[in-house]
Amino acid sequence: MTLPDLGIIEGFYGPLWTMDERRALVRQLGAHGYGFYLYAPKADPYLRRRWEQDHPEHLARELAAFAGFCREQGVRFGIGLSPFEIFNRFDDGARQALARKLAFLDGMGIDELAILFDDMHSDTPDLARTQAEIMHWVMAHSGANRFIMCPSYYSDDPVLDRVFGQRPDDYLEVLGETLDPAVDVFWTGEEVCSREISPGHLRRVAGQLRRKPLLWDNYPVNDGDRMSRHLHLRGFTGRPAANAGEIAGHAINPALQPTLTAIPALTLAQSYGQGEDYCYGEAFRTAAREVVGPDLAEQLLADLLVLQDAGLHRISEERMASLTAAYGEAEHPAAREILRWLAGEYQVTDEMVQTQ
């Protein structure tokens, strides 16, 4: 079967990855059909709360070099910019600041640009039309080849209404009617972290948006106070290969652990490639052996219930010592990520989520 346009969105809360970690993930996943990488970590303040400021020169050079590396691997590089609550006041000052930022991003050599309106409060009466207007302005002032938008309400999940205010009536319909058809629109499914995403649901959303949605899949991401206590390692489920014909692409928001995230990421490509023959357990074993080698893959399989299901808060002192000893003997980046997780170094607090 033909793979959809697969991608990686580095869009989580929590600690930043290193450039070496990003390169390793791109190299591995690019060989399996992943075609784009969107850099949008919540911990990069120059893309969110301090978006009007340029990245410091050394960081800008590193990002430009990473963009070049992605292209060498056949992977498109993009930036996800969250101009914080700009839709509440898109005046001349905001336009000038945004024009400067877009020119700065063009200088990095980006292929794709996403404007992310998610996780922000709005007091704008005509929100969808205002956001479409901003997107059209961005398209006229950016040299990117592809434009993506994440709407304020990017899921049916009522949690968005509770946290950010009641969504306007017909928000998706107005956005679909007003927004240039060339702009892709991110969508996470029926929930922010969807257990299942079905062709029927995608067709309904496509009708509202007047375009096929671009999936922003919040698996295997594990940010947040609760989720960061668990490692998301299992193969993808609830994403049938039939979805491929209903979407503009499928991008995953990765786990906090860059090496381990490659395991479920590889199973997504297997799921689309194998169709009805896909078996998520076997896909996990195949992917784990490729990413960490046969011995460590068997260790992960043996510990899967503890690492993914029980989580840090339910590991006894005795089991903690056993796990630390087992992974301490393995000379592999994935084992080091597990040791860091066991030590609590990947814990994401509510304060981090509220301030990043």
Summarize the structure.
The protein has 356 residues and is α/β, with parallel strands linked by helices. The longest helix has 17 residues.
Q: If you had to describe this structure to a student in words, what would you say it looks like?
A:
With 356 residues, this protein is α/β, with parallel strands linked by helices. The protein has a single domain, classed as TIM Barrel, CATH 3.20.20.80. The protein has 13 helices and 8 strands. The chain has helices at 19-30, 57-72, 92-108, 127-141, 159-164, 171-178, 199-209, 262-274, 280-292, 294-310, 317-328, 333-342, 350-355; strands at 6-10, 34-39, 76-81, 112-116, 146-150, 184-187, 214-217, 249-252. An 8-stranded parallel β-barrel has the order 1-2-3-4-5-6-7-8. Strand 4 (112-116), helix 4 and strand 5 (146-150) form a beta-alpha-beta unit. Helix 1 (19-30) packs parallel to helix 2, helix 4 packs parallel to helix 6 and helix 11 (317-328) packs antiparallel against helix 12. It starts with 5 loop residues before the first strand and ends with a helix. The relative contact order is 0.13. The model has no long low-confidence stretch (mean pLDDT 95).
Give keywords.
356 residues, alpha/beta, TIM Barrel, eight-stranded parallel barrel, 13 helices
Give a topology summary.
Elements: E1 6-10, H1 19-30, E2 34-39, H2 57-72, E3 76-81, H3 92-108, E4 112-116, H4 127-141, E5 146-150, H5 159-164, H6 171-178, E6 184-187, H7 199-209, E7 214-217, E8 249-252, H8 262-274, H9 280-292, H10 294-310, H11 317-328, H12 333-342, H13 350-355
Parallel strand pairs: 1-2, 1-8, 2-3, 3-4, 4-5, 5-6, 6-7, 7-8
